[in-house]
Amino acid sequence: MTEQPVLAVEGLRKTFGDHAAVDDVSFTVPPGGGLAIVGESGSGKTTTARMLVGLERPSAGRVVVDGADRTAPPRGRTARLARARAIQMVFQDPYLSLDPRVTVADAVEEPLRLHFDLDSATRRARRDELLDRVGLGEREAAALPRRLSGGQRQRVALARALAVEPKVLVLDEATSALDVSIQAQIVELLRDLRASLGVAFVFVSHDLSLVRHVADDLLVLRRGRTVETGRAAAVLDGPRHPYTRLLLDSVPHPGWDPARIAADRRALD
Amino acid sequence: MTGTARETLLEIDDLTVRLASGAARPVLDGVALRVARGESVGLVGESGSGKSVTSRAALGLLPAGATATGTVRVAGDDVLTMSAARLRELRRREVAMVFQDPRASINPVRRIGDFVTEGLRAGGTPARAARATAEELLEAVGITDPRRALRRFPHEFSGGMLQRVMIAGALAGGPRLLLADEPTTALDVTTQAEVIAILTRLQAERGTGLLFVTHDLDLAAAVCDRIYVMYAGRIVEEQTAEGLFARPRHPYTAGLLAATPRMGSGEPPRGVPGRPVSLAENPEGCAFAARCRLAAPECAAERPALRLVDGVSVACHRAEEPIHD
Amino acid sequence: MTAVHLERRALLRRLHGGDVMQTAALIVLALIVLVAVFAPWIAPHDPNGLDLSAALGGASGDHPLGTDESGRDVLSRLIYGARTGLLGPLVVVVVSTALGAAVGVAAAWCGGWVDALLSRAMDLVFALPGLLLAIVLVAVFGPGLTAPTVAMSIAYVPYVGRLVRNVAVQEATRPYVQSYRVQGWSGWTICLRHLVPNIAPLVLAQSAMNFGYALMDLAALSFLGFGVQPPGADWGAMINNGANALLQGAAMPALAPGAAIVVAVVAFGVVGEGVADRVAKREA
């Protein structure tokens, strides 16, 4: 456990006006690790994810990826490319995260062209390899996004993010817009990719029931602050904080008692 | 089963709905469904399964340009053939709907009071009486200071609070049948529990029949007595919530259960291979055959009809065989 | 549910003859363009050929639309008038669309003070009446097609720029644009390769409508005597010229160019709306 973390976040904070969306959040992710950041709407989980990839500038705190400080959004081509090589992101909505005018093949080739100096034959081979890795074939490669289902689009988004060969991949609710039967396919794929590629994953999700199956560590956010953190299995089996317990109880299950949960929620405020 | 003992509120029989053009298969294909007084019935399926179209049909709402055959009876009257005046009366007094996205379903420029009372007022209730009823309803759905809430606008409420308002509005006409189309999908989990608690309590108190449409099997099981599972416009299985979890009979139901992530189990969710049948495809046999582990040659050739197997309604040629995971 | 919705819209469109209108408008525009391009071959007479003996002649086999007060063939002048009638607005639309798109996208993408500065600048131009600007430029550069066209090109920039800015602000928050940022592309590349092409149809719709308005504005300037000078054949100038004939009981010299302007403007409007509808449909 003395390994240098691939992602280290320290005292991260983001304020909009006088409202702190993210307030003093810290965590580390080891190389190839899996961290789940879980919270409800307004918990600051998405803002945190956006700060990790440089889409939002933190008000305070530090983001260190692969040993380099990546706190501020990059300036200049070199910094931009270096940052992109370190950390990538898959967005929630598969229907909005691909340019409707770009074919699947081109969507995957674009980052290859930007980041690697490959001749076109090698690049195409690498593209096909990536698409194959996420379970897409020639037919899908030639298609525009609108011909694909939500699950297929999310596979394209994954292939595109992995094309850069990042050290860390942030998945912002990457499965929540999908049907259950398809979501499970993508979860299987994610487990497989993480195991085989050694990329560290940061899952941002509202769904606690998924956490155990995709992540090793868990961070629970509420109103911008860390409520509880630890090994995923340990937190899920023995939550310490009443809010974590409430979240766990809220997931429908046999013997579910919504009235009691409602009472617990009121007690917490 | 339970429907025979109690008065049946909603009876859908052999409902087939076809779109105006462009689709290879009907959106709904021979759907039959019952909701009795005081009963909570779940209608579960993934996107494109036809679950929303089914629930809307109970209000006489069909996709524009669509043609429907079969019957949709509410308290004995066929919704599909009744006059426009009778249909309006039905929507005002007997059947109400709670939609998925309260922010999109409540007029943003009108006050909450207008939303809750508009059905009553249209039905001839005097303003003062309508307002009193609205206050009671808002109080019943747990909104503090209902009198002030009536004068507020939708944007002043959170999503969860607004969904409570929608439930109050739906109950205002004193309906006997409540349709809830993914009422908590847009909400946070803790808020979902609150809204479900309110919905089920009021439904039980009033003896309202509830048709609960959702993609979430676990939620349906927690809310409903009986569950219908839909796939590609057809009902593929119907049984009690406990029965569904203990022994799903249709391979699709089993697949959905296996695909649902479980908090307590170390077993990862398992995806159902392939993808749902689009409206452009019309497979000859069972619509699920292409994704089914148990599929036999007959499955691709002949469409299985719903039949009773050990007291469970299921549309599968191989329903007698155990489903191995 | 979207498929169902679209189905209904397509049906409604067919019922209400939307497609028929679109097709008709496109045919009209194509005809006007063809006429303008092939004017020397189509026109039966020299548009500037004076024949005072035939002044204000009614419709005849030789002059289907009659002649004006100088005995020039109205049809031929109408046909040649399509050239200046289209050329001016074309320049206005191309220049204002290019400038407006650049300003709008820059404001949307950079945000902050750049946005504030560019937006206020557009407000300023917007507040300045285009016709007034044209008259000022005419005073400086002298009358003709150039000064009014330059003036209108500037005056139309805010119409395009404001639209582009608002649409681009929305588009820039879309995950596909953000994912290109995360991939490491520069703002330039993202805007040129992805953002602009995706908002282009909407801008195009606006430009088609602007074409009609520009045509009308330039015709008005010519009518007022600031634009195309006699004896040049221009629809606006023809109306001005025809006004005298009107007093002498000959309607055609003024009516024909007036009708041509109306038909062209309406056709551009219909096409623009059609494009906008199609964009909205695709978004839905």
TrEMBL record, chain A:
InterPro entries: AAA+_ATPase (IPR003593), ABC_transp_ATP-bind (IPR050319), ABC_transporter-like_ATP-bd (IPR003439), ABC_transporter-like_CS (IPR017871), Oligopep_ABC_C (IPR013563), P-loop_NTPase (IPR027417). One of its GO terms (biological process) is peptide transport. It comes from the Bacteria. Residues 7-248 form the ABC transporter domain. Gene3D superfamilies: P-loop containing nucleotide triphosphate hydrolases. One of its GO terms (molecular function) is ATP binding. Keywords: ATP-binding, Nucleotide-binding, Transport. Signal peptide: none annotated. Belongs to the ABC transporter superfamily. This is ABC transporter ATP-binding protein. It comes from Actinomadura harenae.
Automatic annotation (TrEMBL), chain B:
It is found in: Cell membrane. GO terms for biological process: peptide transport. It is a peripheral membrane protein. GO terms for cellular component: plasma membrane. Pfam families: ABC_tran (PF00005), oligo_HPY (PF08352). InterPro entries: AAA+_ATPase, ABC_Ni/Peptide_Import, ABC_transporter-like_ATP-bd, ABC_transporter-like_CS, Oligopep_ABC_C, P-loop_NTPase. GO terms for molecular function: ATP binding; ATP hydrolysis activity. Residues 10-257 form the ABC transporter domain. Keywords: ATP-binding, Cell membrane, Membrane, Nucleotide-binding, Transport. It comes from the Bacteria. Its main location: membrane. PROSITE patterns: ABC_TRANSPORTER_1 (PS00211), ABC_TRANSPORTER_2 (PS50893). SMART domains: AAA (SM00382). PANTHER family: DIPEPTIDE TRANSPORT ATP-BINDING PROTEIN DPPD (PTHR43297:SF2), OLIGOPEPTIDE TRANSPORT ATP-BINDING PROTEIN APPD (PTHR43297). Belongs to the ABC transporter superfamily. This is ABC transporter ATP-binding protein. It comes from Actinomadura harenae.
